[in-house]
Amino acid sequence: MKHILLLGASIATLGSASAAMAQQDQTADSPESAADASNIGEIIVTAQKRAERAQDVPISISAFGGEALAKANVTQISDLTRLVPTFNFGSGPGSVSARYTIRGLGTYGNSAVEPSVATFLDGVYIPRPGSLNSGLLDIQSLEVLSGPQGTLFGRNASVGAINITTNVPTDRIEGSAAIEGGTGERYRGEFIANLPFSEKVAIRFVGLAEQFGGYWHYRPTGERFGGVDTMSFRLSGRFDLSENISWIVRGDYQSQTGDGYTNVSLLPESLTPAILANFGARLGGRLPVVGITSNSSLNDPATANVDDYHWGASSTLTFTTDSDFSFKLINGYRHWRAEEQDGEVSFTPVSLFNRKYLFESRSQNHEFQIVSPKDSLLDGRLSFVAGLYYLHEDLDINYDYNLGSEWCSTVIAAVAPPALPACNAGQATPGFYNLFPQTTESYAGYGQLTFKIVPTLALTLGGRYTHEDKEANYTAVRVNPAAVFGTDENTDLSYSDERFTSRVNLSWTPNRDLLLFATYSTGFKAGGFNNGASSSVLGQSREFGPETVKSYEVGLKSQFLDRRLTFNVTAYRMDVSGFQERALINAVSVVQNVGNIRSQGVEANALVRPTSWLQFNGSVAYLDAKFTSYPNAPALPWQTGVQDLSGKRPTFAPKWTTNFGAEAQTGIGGGYSATLRADISTTGKQNRNSINDASPTTDRPAYALLSARLTLFSPGDRWWLAFFGQNLTDKHYCVANGYQVLAPQLGAIDVAGQNAATTCFHGNPRTLGARIGFKW
Fold first, then answer.
1. What pTM did the predictor assign?
2. Strands 117-121 and 160-166
3. How far apart are CA 383 and CA 401, in angstroms?
4. Phi-psi group of 183: left, alpha or beta (phi > 0 → left; psi -120 to 50 → alpha; rest → beta)
5. Ranges for the TonB-dependent receptor-like beta-barrel domain (predicted)?
6. Whole-angstrom Cα distance, residue 498 to residue 516?
7. Full 3-state SS string of 405-460
8. Sheet holding 99-102, edge to edge
9. Angstrom distance (rounded) from CA 485 to CA 353
10. Could you state, in order of their start, the residue ranges of all structural domains in the chain?
């Protein structure tokens, strides 16, 4: 109650606003009906498999229209951290390391571990989050659902889901084109064309091309790195086959090429005199950059490479009866292939070793839905959704670890001198490689019904039965005996599991502008296999168990003053059992069920529109997370054995996160108008380590990021010119931390001083840009 009152007071004081600056389906940058379109109660969402106002859905949801995303400069899923306090994004070099976190819970994507936050594109499940890094374009709506979505979304939505819907072809000839340039030698072009052939047939084409040099520089030469060039296309078709049958088909293709490397440096507070002396001596005085205020690196990323593509096709066939029952058949196929190579994996200026890896996912989804009319059964008291679901995924993960020119003389000569001759003899060959093919099949049946006990009080009951089968093989070969981080292994793996997840919700709507709800729900993410390298044979211990969640929520959604004020608040508790985590320890990947977590807190958002031309929005999230049981956690690098982390806070779980924004629109004469928007997001102190060990060296301080956008519109809004910037104060911060790779071998651990050299993966620096576009 104390935290609820504190949040309410904060929002009232600051004139805050919502986590869902919803817009109607309009061309991005368009100012049309800005006041009405910005009302978070008017956005239409499909979180319950039917079109509903966001304010009428009794779940915790942050929803955005395409115009809202454009005004906030959200072009990638990672940008949502500026708008959704409960959402966190982390990554490393390349695209496969994407980590989506909701309410402090999530896992890295660069392994066979599946995400705890599920992603859906036009109703089709996307198994691997890295495949969506190419950006967002022509979006109708984007929804971030907090808490288990184990009934209607199901697979791997144990702590939340991201639901993306693209624009459907309309019956008007319309389109837009825009070009954009910005910091990092970034140049971008977009094109949208909607072509109706009749009232019943229309197509929509979307294209994007971006060239990006990168924000970072290699210090000795000034060469840029971190850039990725992107090509993206989507073709959609809408066919109204009859009065009752509609068919929407989509095909898309995205590619990314470049180096995609991240600026990495050492935290100065982690370097004791002993570490500086030993580490420096082992590397011949060639230390990485120390400190996080530099946008340059001494690590040559020339060997880094990203060559990714992602394509897919989907079909949604809908039959609607005369009595408004809807039958949907959704089919989709996705193919993601990421062939990438890290730069120097040790993040030092010394050539020790690099990794080349291939991630390839080929998946097919098939879902049959029955959606009843909302207000007709039993005199409008009963409605339901039911369906069957099937997923098949073939996943291949292959790693090659290649020894660098100084591996033998730097590492082996110091820690294993007898292996030096063999190391030198095999230096030109790969040091170690592993292969991991996996096949997954998932079947599910689900149903959810809502019964109005009285006209203002509704009870919702939902359930989903899921069955999962997985087959895999782990093969590893140590080509060079000096590749001490891996060993030979050949293990066949098999896993099968089934679970029932449920949802019980009671909602009370005393009037159209007030909704109160209470929910109990469960979530399930199947177990799987550790595909990571190991210096010892793991065999059947590579299998890890399922992750399950029990969640409790109470919430309020409200609108006042003729809907000029919107205020929503949700209090929750999530009990997670068998939390799955992937950690990187000395270049060796470890995946396991690390323990049980209790995540609880309060989320609040509000929108204030005092006039038709001015609005304020904001959201606040308070998170209290801790391990309720983790007795065998890994020890700190300067210790041995294990430690008990029960009662400790997990990583990537800040206590406070906020977002506040303001938007003003005005005429400037001659039919011209302007819109100015500014947003500030804050992230509280948190531990950003790649492994949960409660290390004080990876605790990072709170920081705030400021962004703004000024858009000028011509008479009739036919063209526009925008100037924008992100991280305008040029705040230097870390999106992730980790220990120096091979720290024991490189003398980067100080046992007496209880410290270890710690790396910082830099967040983006200040970026500026301009955009000009027109529509027809």
1. 0.88
2. parallel
3. 56
4. beta
5. 241-728
6. 33
7. CCHHHHHHHHHCHHHHHHHHHCCCCEEEEEEEEEEEEEEEEEEEEEEEEECCEEEE
8. 87-90, 99-102, 105-108
9. 11
10. 2-227+243-268+281-775
- Distance, CA of 295 to chain centre: 24
- Give per-residue pLDDT as tens, 632-675: 888 899 998 889 999 999 999 999 999 999 999 999 988 999 99
Q: How far is CA 580 from CA 160, 162, 390, 527, in A?
A: 15, 20, 23, 8
Distance CA 279, CA 268 (A): 13
Determine the Cα–Cα distance for residues 729 and 732; give it in Å rounded to an integer: 9
Residue 119, amino acid: T
* Contact of 288 with 348, CB cutoff 8 Å: yes
H helices of 248-327, in order, are 273-282
Which neighbouring-strand residues pair with 606?
Answer: 567, 618
Tokens representing 497?
Answer: 């599991």
Type of residue found at 371: V
Question: What pLDDT band is residue 584 in, cutting at 50, 70 and 90?
Answer: low
As given in the structure block, the two tokens for residue 55 are: 């304010």
Q: Which CATH number fits domain 2-227+243-268+281-775: 2.40.170.20, 2.60.120.620, 3.30.2130.10, 2.40.30.20?
A: 2.40.170.20
Which CA distances in Å does 406 have to 116, 283, 409? 39, 10, 5
Tally of CB atoms within 10 A around 37:
20
| Residue 34 confidence class, pLDDT cut points 50, 70, 90 | very low
Residues, the chain: 776
**How far from chain centre, in Å, is Cα 94?**
14
Dist CA 680 CA 83 (whole Å): 9
| Greatest Cα-to-Cα distance within the chain, rounded to the nearest angstrom | 84
- Per-residue pLDDT band for 583 (boundaries 50, 70, 90) equals low
Q: For the sheet containing 224-225, what is the strand order?
A: 224-225, 216-218, 296-297
Say which amino acid occupies 369: Q
3-state secondary structure of 236: strand
Cβ proximity of 493 and 540 under 8 Å = yes
Gyration radius of the chain over CA positions: 26
Determine the Cα–Cα distance for residues 194 and 179; give it in Å rounded to an integer.
19
Q: SS3 for 278?
A: helix
HEC assignment per residue over 498-530: EEEEEEEEEEEEEECCEEEEEEEEEEEECCEEC
Lowest mean pLDDT among 27-31, 39-43, 562-566, 691-695: 27-31
Q: What is the DSSP letter of 168?
A: P
Find the angle CA(265)-CA(271)-CA(272) to the nearest 5 degrees. Answer: 175
Q: Specify the 3-state DSSP secondary structure of 137.
A: coil
337-346, 557-566, 749-758, 766-775: lowest mean pLDDT where? 337-346
- Specify the residue for token string 């009595």: 323
What is the spatial distance between Cα 139 and Cα 513, in angstroms, rounded to a whole number? Answer: 27
How far apart are the C-alpha atoms of 353 and 406, rounded to whole Å? Answer: 8
pLDDT of residue 729: 96
